Amino acid sequence: MTKKGALLVNLGSPDSTDPKDVKKYLDEFLMDPRVIDVPYWLRSFIVRGIVLNTRPKKSAEAYSKIWWEEGSPLIVLSERLRDKVDDHTGIPIALAMRYGSMTIKKGLQELKEKGVTEVLIVPLYPQFAMATTETIMVLAEELRQEFFPEMTFDSLPAFYNKPEYIEVLSKSIAEKLEGLDYEHLLFSYHGVPERHIKKRDITKSHCKIDGQCCITHSPAHKFCYRHQCYEVTRLVGEKLQLKEGTFSTSFQSRLGFDPWLQPYTDRTIEKLGLTGINKMAIVTPAFVSDCLETLEEIAMEGEEIFHEVGGKEFTTIPCLNDREDWVRVLSGWIDRWAIVEVETAIA
Ligand SMILES: C=CC1=C(C)c2cc3[nH]c(cc4nc(cc5[nH]c(cc1n2)c(C)c5CCC(=O)O)C(CCC(=O)O)=C4C)c(C)c3C=C
Ligand SMILES: [Fe+2]
Ligand SMILES: [Fe+2]
């Protein structure tokens, strides 16, 4: 007799804003070979020899600016989502984080204790990336083999182009912008090194990271983060009937010296202000839950950049978080899986 359950998985946060906790978290995160994808000795030198000497203090200060009484916004918002999805679906729902204390192992154990044998892993990311979806699935499978051999896994694929997702995202944008005569809407996605995109090109020749490859149909797009980001912008633009030239795409949060996906968000905000845009809005569809990258890097630093170059109004659109319509959409996908297994995505 089998029993189904779902495990929602988000990125994770440090346990507190203490630099020691931030260091521990960053060590686990940045030592992941799917995040910094260089040989172990080099990754260890970069992360432990350079980044962790200075970054934890700086990141801890940034976390302190956005931390809530209940804890990390990303964790609290993910917990609220889990609770609501649990109320809406007919199967047990657990929550885990890829990094930090709320481990995937604990999440799977929780489901096991409820008698679950068939698990739908739900990476809480609209787009595929090796630094997000892939690393979750790889770790989950390793844990399954070692600790939960009686379980079977399916996964919810990237949902960047699912009409129900585009609908709720568009609605969330329209609601926030209602009555605001903003001049430009920027879609800012978390960046990744260009190398990550080329590495996951299953055709080995499609991705050139130019103006054309991501809009030219290809099987490579199943794993192309850049294509999937541009598709979200395009589909929302269509849904909201945004006029050409009033919206654009950029990539934030670059780290290190390698080329990351461009255009960069900070430079784009600056350019918009310098070219006479007075009122801009910004949405961050690589994240389902508000987090350090949206609440500090965009809502605080981004706004500061815009004002410094003469921009007047800067509106940040919240992530979907635990919105009722998003909860219904996510719960619907899970319930549909629970009734009929549609897709199996574990390699
Ligand atoms: C070095 C590489 C990084 C890659 C590649 C990367 C990809 C990536 N990250 C997210 C989502 C989030 N990242 C967050 C924080 C964060 N990201 C990196 C580095 C890379 N991310 C660092 C060093 C940090 C820590 C904060 C800092 O020191 O600046 C967060 C926020 C977590 C929180 O606690 O709020 C999220 C969410 C995606 C979606 C992605 C690839 C697509
Ligand atoms: Fe990140
Ligand atoms: Fe592409």
Structural features, described:
With 347 residues, the protein is of the alpha/beta class. It folds into two domains: 4-159 and 324-339, Rossmann fold; 163-316, Rossmann fold (3-Layer(aba) Sandwich), CATH 3.40.50. Helices cover 47% and strands 13% of the residues. The protein contains eleven helices and eight strands. It has helices at residues 19-30, 40-66, 73-88, 104-113, 130-147, 163-177, 194-199, 225-239, 265-274, 292-308, 324-339; strands at 4-10, 93-97, 118-123, 152-155, 184-190, 247-252, 279-283, 313-316. The strands form two sheets. A four-stranded parallel β-sheet has the order 2-1-3-4, with helices on both faces. The chain has a four-stranded parallel β-sheet with strand order 6-5-7-8, with helices on both faces. Helix 1 crosses helix 2 (40-66) and helix 6 crosses helix 8. It starts with a strand and ends in an 8-residue tail after the last helix. Residues 342-347 have low confidence and may be disordered. The site of one fe (ii) ion (FE2) has 6 residues, from helix 8. This is Ferrochelatase.
